[in-house]
Write a structure and sequence with these properties.
CATH superfamily: Amidase signature (AS) domain
CATH topology: Amidase signature (AS) enzymes
Largest sheet: 8 strands, mixed
Radius of gyration: 21 Å
CATH class: Alpha Beta
Strand order of the largest sheet: 6-8-7-12-13-11-9-10
Number of strands: 13
Structural class: alpha+beta
Helix content: 25-40%
Shape: globular
Distance between the termini: 26 Å
Length: 447
């Protein structure tokens, strides 16, 4: 891990010096926790103060994957990029906005290599350990961010979600995570649209404060059909069974979903077992979209190669990444066209369910966080990865917002339940999360 923090320099004002000392204290706190859990890829130096910005000095960690910050490291979980010390040449729009809003971007959190795994155990810099049990993983690919928030290193951390990469680690680590939706139904399914920036947080209010940062506004859509305005009796469908043959749903996950369903029913909502039947096509969805995922990966590798200054080769990648990249050859124009047409029909059928319901309640993941190394065999890793994504990935394709709410269950590890709404209902999902229980994530034992 590279620590690029700096001590307060001479010639600064008292207020600037106080802020710099505070920034150093934050970095010491973060790195102290990281020494035990391994969630950091690198720290970053304090940015110049923006006294009039709304988030001035607020600590934030960002994922080491898709978010570009000019002159800052961007290693994408890859060993060669890390050894080379690759940096971004420019800010992307969200990176620029975070800086303009005044966030103190403390560092980058570890990501699975190129974000492909639902665990964060990159060979580039070792695994992220679950703060609830260090022999277990933190989920992925935004596992570093979820772990850091669960450990209270920071209150908010950035991540990305291509098929569950925010929601899965949030569930495994016991924190909140919001995958924002597209502004309307997806018309041309592409992985560029599926991959959404979002945040994990220890409190619902913190996610609410981040809605404007994501361009989603703050106002509730109360009263609009299909949303959960205050006092409105919602139509909630409950899914508590597996929709993939890869991994069956565990009894603990079923129990916490039923507990949340009972809580909503007690509050007067209309709750019944129901879900979009098209979710049961998940195994076919995973199989048909894999070549498109490989094509998306090829573009990401090409972008990273520009930072490296030479093409990344298969020898530069983990075996699972190289295996996925090789599948890009299957993404012929004809195959992609057929898959896109199939996805359009699937998304139409999926989103039509929300004409009759307001919310889908399900597990976020079928089981609690597996032990480190469970995804280590390339021959079984893809099968297990898809099984872990069975409740999350289709909602990237449909562009619907989805929220993970942490729950405490048996066995010493947290669970997560997922709330899925219609397009534009991010604020309403947060309202509903507050009805489900404490608006703050559970505290780690001994903290």
């Amino acid at each position: 891990m590279t620590d690029q923090s700096t001590e307060p320099g001479a010639g600064t004002s008292d207020s600037e010096r106080a802020r710099a000392v505070s920034a150093v204290d934050v970095r010491e706190h973060v790195t102290r926790l990281d020494a035990d859990l391994g969630f950091l890829a690198t720290t970053l130096p304090p940015a110049p103060s923006r006294p009039d910005a709304p988030f001035t000095g607020e600590p934030l960690l960002v994922k080491d994957l898709d978010l570009k910050l000019a002159h800052a490291p961007l290693w994408r979980g890859n060993r060669v990029l890390r050894e080379h010390g690759a940096v971004s040449g420019r800010d992307d729009p969200l990176g620029r906005r975070l800086r303009e809003l005044g966030f103190d971007i403390v560092g980058r959190t570890k990501s699975a290599e190129f974000g492909l795994a639902v665990t964060t155990e990159p060979l580039a810099y070792g695994p992220v350990r679950n703060p609830w049990d260090r022999d277990h993983g933190a989920g992925g690919s935004s596992g570093g961010s979820a772990c850091a928030v669960a450990a209270r290193a920071v209150r908010i951390a950035h991540g990305t979600d291509l098929g569950g990469s925010l929601r899965i680690p949030a569930a495994h680590c016991g924190v909140f995570a919001l995958k924002p939706g597209l502004m309307g139904p997806a018309t041309t399914p592409t992985f560029e649209d599926w991959n959404q920036h979002g945040f994990v947080a220890s409190r619902v209010d913190d996610l609410r404060r981040m809605l404007p940062v994501l361009g989603r506004g703050q106002a509730s859509d109360a009263g609009r059909p299909g949303t959960d305005g205050p006092g409105r009796r919602l139509r909630v469908g409950v899914l508590a069974a597996a929709v993939s043959s890869a991994i069956d749903v565990g009894g603990g996950s079923v129990e916490v979903v039923q507990r949340m369903a009972d809580r909503l029913s007690d509050q007067g909502h209309h709750v019944l077992p129901a879900h979009p039947q098209v979710l049961e096509q998940f195994d076919q969805f995973a199989m048909r979209t894999t070549p498109m995922l490989a094509g998306w990966l090829a573009k990401e590798v090409a972008d990273a190669s520009e930072d490296l200054g030479r093409p990344l080769t298969e020898a530069d990648m983990e075996p699972g990444t190289a295996r996925m990249l090789a599948m890009a050859a299957m993404a012929t124009p004809e195959a992609v066209r057929d898959t896109v047409e199939w996805l359009r029909r699937l998304v139409t059928d999926l989103t039509a369910w929300w004409d009759r319901f307001d919310i889908l309640l399900s597990p976020t993941v079928p089981v609690q966080a597996p032990r480190l190394g469970w995804f280590g065999d390339p021959d079984t890793a893809m099968h297990r990865t898809f099984g872990m994504m069975q409740y999350t990935a289709m909602f990237n394709a449909s562009g619907q917002p989805a929220l993970t709410v942490p729950c405490v269950g048996a066995g010493g590890l947290p669970y997560g339940v997922q709330l899925v709404g219609t397009h534009g209902s991010e604020a309403n999902l947060l309202d509903l999360a507050e009805q489900l229980g404490p608006a703050e994530a559970p505290t780690l034992p001994g903290r």
